[in-house]
Amino acid sequence: MSGIGSVSGRADINSVLAEMRNLRTQVQKTDALRPEISPTKIQGTQETQSLPKFGDLLANAVNSVNDTQMKSAELSKAFEQGDPTVSLSQVMIQSQKASVSFQALTQVRNKVVQAYEDVMKMPV
Predict the structure, then answer these.
(1) Bridge partners, 40 (sequence order)
(2) Phi and psi of 48, rounded to 5°?
(3) Which range marks the domain in which residue 96 is found?
């Protein structure tokens, strides 16, 4: 799995993850500036539940994709080193999971950026 294609692919992944982390910090700064959302009451129960912050959701998504990517890299390395407990099918399945999750995260990032741009273009 070594080669120029995987190195540039890894660089692209790292650049998108860095951009997502940058967006997360911007969202967290924005969340700090606005007033706190009051807890909502769930109908029919006595429980109160706070709404999750967007920045936290975004951070969890980035961390989840990163974990998937790391697990894929570990399985691939173990297979390349001849670990008998790791099969090629496990490596390929984990690699596809990492690829799909990264593509989904990229699409979410694109939608977030588009929504941000739309909001910034709105007249006040």
Answers:
(1) 49
(2) -115, 145
(3) 4-121
Q: How many domains does one find in the chain? A: 1
When pLDDT is cut at 50, 70 and 90, the band that residue 9 belongs to is low
Contact 46, 86 (CB under 8 A): no
- Determine the 3-state secondary structure of 49 from DSSP: strand
Residues 6+ positions from 112 with CB-CB distance below 8 Å: 23, 58
The answer to whether the pTM exceeds 0.90 is no
Read off the pLDDT of residues 47-105 as tens digits, 9 standing for 90 and up.
456 778 888 888 899 999 999 999 999 999 999 999 999 999 999 999 999 999 999 99
Query: What long-range pairs does 92-95 form, CB within 8 A, spacing at least 24?
Result: 94/68
Q: Where are the alpha helices (DSSP H) in the chain?
A: 4-33, 54-80, 88-121
Quote the CA–CA distance of 62 and 81 in Å, as a whole number.
29
